[in-house]
């Protein structure tokens, strides 16, 4: 039999936050990710979808974002915002999809980086903002 003094209690300092509307467990602040760190599937899916939409528009399948939005069954505002991900700097896209580092901006904020210069996009997306 086990006695009360035989029990070991392990406390792991984790925080639960919402990311993209889903709960996500965050590691301690001093945690260094291992080599097997995976990319956020929401980011990968959004970038892939944006590039698919861009190709369809470039091929002339749709003349306007409104036509595209109606065809994919999403709000025009959402399609317009996410389509901007296809116009991010090549370095930012590479680091978001292939890199093993976390972005300093959310997926929503990344949609608005396309209007910045390429060096500014990289700086805003990956430099630690101190938060």
TrEMBL record:
Q: Which domain of life is it from?
A: Bacteria
Query: Which Gene3D superfamilies does the record associate with it?
Result: 1.10.10.2830
The molecule here is called Uncharacterized protein
């Amino acid at each position: 039999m086990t006695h009360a003094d035989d029990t070991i209690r392990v406390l792991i300092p984790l925080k639960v936050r919402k990311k993209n509307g889903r709960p996500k467990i965050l590691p301690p602040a001093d945690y260094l990710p291992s080599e097997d760190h995976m990319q956020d599937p929401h980011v990968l899916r959004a970038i892939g979808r944006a590039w698919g939409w861009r190709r369809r528009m470039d091929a002339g399948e749709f003349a306007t974002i409104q036509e595209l939005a109606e065809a994919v069954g999403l709000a025009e505002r959402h399609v317009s915002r996410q389509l901007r991900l296809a116009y991010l700097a090549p370095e930012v896209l590479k680091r978001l999809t292939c890199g093993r580092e976390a972005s300093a901006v959310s997926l929503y904020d990344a949609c608005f980086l396309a209007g910045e210069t390429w060096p500014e996009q990289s700086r805003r997306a990956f430099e630690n903002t101190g938060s």
